[in-house]
Structures are given as C-alpha cells and as structure tokens.
Amino acid sequence: MIRIILVDDQHLIRRGLRALLKTDPAIEVIGEGENGREAVDLVEALQPDLVLMDVRMPVMDGVVGTREICHRYPHTKVLVLTTFNDREYVTQALQAGASGYLLKDTPFEELTQAIQLVYKGYTQIGPGLVGSVLMRSSPPTTIEVADGWERLTPRELEIVRSIARGASNREIAEALFIAEKTVKNRITNILSQLNLRDRTQLAIVALQKGMDDFS
C-alpha cells in the first residue's frame, strides 16, 4: 500500500483526487494540505511514502515545500501535479528534489502508474516536458545507451519519435490506429531492447540522438 498526502490549495481538486485514488487498492490517501508549509508538517507527522504536490500555492509554494521535504525526509517521494507547464517550474521542482512532474490533465491510469513508479524510485516527467528539462539542465543530462536501435521495427521507431515529441500513449495509439495496450507493450519492448529504465529516459535519449537518427 502506497501511503500518500495530497497538497493543493483548491479543496475541490483535493476532493476529486481523493475520490479517484480511492478506487486504486494499492494507494491510500492519509492526509491533505493546502500549501507547502502544511505539506512539510504533514510529512513530519504522518511519514507518508509520497506527496502529490501542486506548485503555485499561498504561504509556501510547492517548490519550497518539495525542497524542505526532500532535505528533511529523504524517504518520502514528491510527485508534482500541477496545471503549470512552465519550463522554470519544471526545472526548479526537479532541482528541489521532486521525483516527477505531471500536469493535471494526465489520464488517471497514467497518474496511478506514475505514483507507483515514483514510489519504486523511478523519475516520471509528463509528456511534452522532457525537452524543457534538457534545455534547462546544466550540465546537460546524458544517458549511455546500449546497442539495440537497429533491432527496433519501423513502428517502434515511430513510437519513439512520438514519445520524443511528448505524446501520451493514448495520442500515439490514435495517431497509429492501434490499441493503447499495444502501445504500452511496444514501449516495454523498446525499453528492454535499449536497456532503458522508463519512457522518460527514452525521451531524453531520443532528443540527444536527434530525430534525423530515426528517419
């Protein structure tokens, strides 16, 4: 069971998230806060596994709250969930120690999957945000990739292009006229062949190599 705290200054957002997450038997919402200060206090009191954190909030924003939590309670993960796709926010949140950054229009299934992956130690960056991270990274993020690109099928290479552009699984499925489940299976195969951990690493490598390498 993943014990999480919801932090958002809008009560309706917290209420909706709680109701949705309640349907996942692997997740338990154990507390709610409306700013970064309350988030820090709740983490101290409840020792959750993960904090689902908004960015722009009164009293203490999510970036400062994330920094305090990650510094004082390193065993608690922070996953940012916000409406703001501003490059500066993404970079600041990750530099503060957040294990992921998603937008609030993320499909529920992808949100719960991200929560589970962050809990396991992976980093999750929402579609379309990886480029912002690379542009602001100093030094640039670099990932070593094993051989395997030549074994990818044309369809798998097209999926890689789509991921590099920031497309979600649903958008890829619609563009390629295949089932979303098929997209997930193909991505799993791609990650296995390239010895990569997750789609975030795949997007970073794709951007590092340049789209011409996949033509």
TrEMBL record:
InterPro entries linked to this entry: CheY-like_superfamily, NreC/VraR/RcsB-like_REC, Sig_transdc_resp-reg_C-effctor, Sig_transdc_resp-reg_receiver, Tscrpt_reg_LuxR_C, WalR-like
An example GO biological process term is:
phosphorelay signal transduction system
Keyword Phosphoprotein recorded: yes
Pfam families from the xrefs? Answer: GerE, Response_reg
Indicate the segments forming the HTH luxR-type domain, all copies. 145-210
The protein's matches in PROSITE patterns, at most eight in alphabetical order, are given as: HTH_LUXR_2, RESPONSE_REGULATORY
Record-linked SMART domains: HTH_LUXR (SM00421), REC (SM00448)
Please indicate which superkingdom the organism of origin belongs to: Bacteria
Gene Ontology molecular function, alphabetical: DNA binding
Under what name is this protein listed? DNA-binding response regulator
Q: Which source organism?
A: Chamaesiphon polymorphus CCALA 037
